[in-house]
Amino acid sequence: MHVKVLYEDNHLLIVEKPVNIPVQGDSSKDRDLQEMLKQYIKDKYNKPGNVYLGLIHRLDRPVGGAMVFAKTSKAASRLSDELRRHKIDRRYVAVIHGRPKRKAGRLVDYLWKDRKKNIVKVADRKKNGAKEAILDYKVLDQDGKHSLAEVQLQTGRSHQIRVQMANQGTPLYGDQKYGRHMNKVGQQIALWACSLSVKHPTKDEIISVDCPPPSVHPWNKFQLT
């Protein structure tokens, strides 16, 4: 599978993750993005032996868009620290059912993950294992029964955008897990990592990439610029 490279140097590799492939190996045994990119580096630079490629953050399997990987252990350590301190700017676009009560706002919830079922739920903050989840959103465009929203994560919880948007009554288009009652089987989830900004691990500069979603339904119903 061809993977589009958005930025690359000796320390960083930023790519457009295709939809419906896992970021790293899982129980499905399907070919994963991390292994694809290791093979890409091995082939491009004629590298013998094992190739190092550090995984810094994740995207859910059905979600596509910008992802950054570290090509050196130094970069991995510094980027992981940036992520922990919420210094990596990650923005998403999502097509949601309905319209939020406010055109822009901040959602703050506590999320608890049922690891056996791989489902995340909004929970009481006192529940053992519940973690605070914060995101900011703004509605960019509307079309009939759907809205286009930009989302900026302030925390990086599992399934966070999907669960928080569903909890306020506006589940994501195509989300079979958290919007099953409003979506048809087989629809592709409309959540896309559209931009990414990171401080370069060895230079005093910010590396920013834009990664618009594909011009297919339901994205092509909206003004994306």
Could you characterize the architecture of this molecule?
- It catalyses: a uridine in RNA = a pseudouridine in RNA.
- This is RNA pseudouridylate synthase.
- It comes from Salinicoccus roseus.
- Pfam families: PseudoU_synth_2.
- Residues 11-166 form the Pseudouridine synthase RsuA/RluA-like domain.
- This protein is α+β, with helices and mostly antiparallel strands.
- It has a single domain (4-221), classed as Pseudouridine synthase (2-Layer Sandwich).
- It is built from 3 helices and 11 strands.
- Strands 1, 2, 3, 4, 5, 6, 7, 8, 9, 10 and 11 form an 11-stranded mixed sheet that branches.
- It is globular and about 55 Å long.
- The two termini are 28 Å apart.
- 31% of the residues are buried.
Characteristic key phrases:
eleven-stranded mixed β-sheet, alpha+beta, 11 strands, Pseudouridine synthase, 35% strand, RNA binding, RluA_PseudoU_synthase, PsdUridine_synth_cat_dom_sf, 3 helices, pseudouridine synthase activity, 15% helix
- N-end to C-end Cα span: 28 Å
List the uncertain runs: none
- Total of DSSP H or I helical runs spanning 4+ residues: 3
CATH topology: Pseudouridine synthase
CATH superfamily: Pseudouridine synthase
Strand content: 35-45%
How many β-strand runs? 11
Q: Give the biggest beta sheet.
A: 11 strands, mixed
Shape: globular
Number of domains: 1
Q: Average the pLDDT over all residues and give the rounded result.
A: 94
* Share of residues in helices: 10-25%
What is the radius of gyration computed over CA atoms, rounded to a whole number of angstroms? Answer: 18 Å
CATH architecture: 2-Layer Sandwich
By secondary-structure content and strand pairing, the structural class works out as: alpha+beta
The SSE order reads EEHEEHEEEEEHEE
